[in-house]
Specification:
The protein has 254 residues and is an alpha/beta fold. Helices cover 42% and strands 15% of the residues. It has eight helices and eight strands, in the order E-H-E-E-E-H-E-H-E-H-H-E-H-H-H-E. It starts with 12 loop residues before the first strand and ends in a 7-residue tail after the last strand.
Length: 254
C-alpha cells in the first residue's frame, strides 16, 4: 500500500511454502504479503539445497522438500533465525494429477499424500514452536481444493481429492487444538485458477465450456486466491478459525 495507508501484515513474519513459480498462487501470496508489510521466508524444493537467496528486501528464499520432515525442520529453523520469529504460516506447496483409480499405482498415491497432506503436517509441526511463541496473533492458512469438496474431477483424481480432503480436516482439527493456545487455523479451497497447470491441461474448446458452467463465467487468478489468504492471515479475520473459504467463482456452491 502507498500514501501511508494501513498495512494488514505490518511487522508480521510469514512462511509461504511453494512460492518459487512466478505464475503460481504461492508467488502471488508472497508479493501481496510483502506489499502488506510482512517479512517473508519462501520455502520451495526448487531452490538449490544449501543456498540462501535474498532477491528483495524483506524476503528470503530457502530450500525445503515438504515431504521430508528433516528438510522442513532445517528450513523452519533457518527461517525463524532470519525473520526473528514466525507469526503466519501458509502451507501452499502441493502437486496435482488426474490419474483415475484403475490406472493409479501405489507409489503415485503415496507421493500425492506425502507432498500435499504429510507435507502440510511436516511444515506445521516444524513451525509450531515458533508460532506458540508469537505474540502477534499467529495464524495458519492451508490450501485445500474444490476437488476435496466435490470428489475430484477435472485436474485432480481420487488421490488428489483425498490429500486435499485430509488438509481440510487437518485444518479443522488444528483450529480446535490450537485455538486455546491463541493460534487460528483456516483453509482456502481454490477452484479453477489460471496457472501454468490449467493452461497446459485445458484446450480452448474445453476451457470455454468449463467457463460456461461457472457463474462468474471465468477462471480465477492467483492474486484472487492470495487476497483470500491475506484475509485469513490478517486480523481482519480475528474471530474466524476452522473455516474453509471457497474461491471458485461459484463453480461449486454447497
Amino acid at each position: 500500500m502507498t500514501g501511508g495507508a494501513l498495512q494488514l501484515l505490518a511487522g508480521k513474519r510469514a512462511i509461504v511454502t511453494g512460492g518459487a513459480n512466478p505464475r503460481g498462487i504461492g508467488a502471488a501470496v508472497v508479493e501481496l504479503f510483502l506489499a502488506q508489510g510482512a517479512n517473508v521466508a519462501v520455502l520451495d524444493h526448487a531452490y538449490p539445497e544449501g543456498a540462501e537467496v535474498q532477491p528483495v528486501r524483506g524476503r528470503v528464499d530457502l530450500h525445503c522438500d515438504v515431504s521430508r520432515a528433516a528438510s522442513c525442520e532445517a528450513a523452519l529453523a533457518r527461517a525463524k533465525e532470519v525473520l526473528g520469529g514466525i507469526d503466519v504460516l501458509v502451507n501452499n506447496a502441493g502437486i496435482v494429477a488426474a490419474t483415475r483409480i484403475w490406472d493409479l499405482p501405489e507409489d503415485e498415491f503415496r507421493r500425492m499424500i506425502d507432498v500435499n497432506l504429510t507435507g502440510t503436517y511436516n511444515v506445521t509441526h516444524a513451525a509450531l514452536p515458533a508460532l506458540l511463541e508469537s505474540t502477534r496473533h499467529p495464524a495458519i492458512v492451508n490450501l485445500g481444493s474444490t476437488a476435496a469438496l466435490r470428489g475430484g474431477g477435472l485436474l485432480g483424481g481420487s488421490h488428489y481429492a483425498a490429500s486435499k480432503g485430509g488438509v481440510i480436516s487437518f485444518t479443522k482439527a488444528l483450529a480446535r487444538e490450537l485455538g486455546p493456545r491463541g493460534i487460528r487455523a483456516n483453509c482456502v479451497a481454490p477452484g479453477i485458477i489460471e496457472t501454468d497447470m490449467t493452461r497446459e491441461k485445458f484446450g480452448e474448446n474445453w476451457e470455454q465450456e468449463l467457463k460456461q458452467g461457472i457463474p462468474l463465467q471465468r477462471f480465477g487468478s492467483p492474486a484472487e486466491v492470495a487476497q483470500a489468504i491475506l484475509f485469513l492471515a490478517s486480523d481482519l479475520s480475528s474471530y474466524s478459525t476452522g473455516i474453509v473459504v471457497d474461491v471458485n467463482g461459484g463453480f461449486h456452491i454447497h
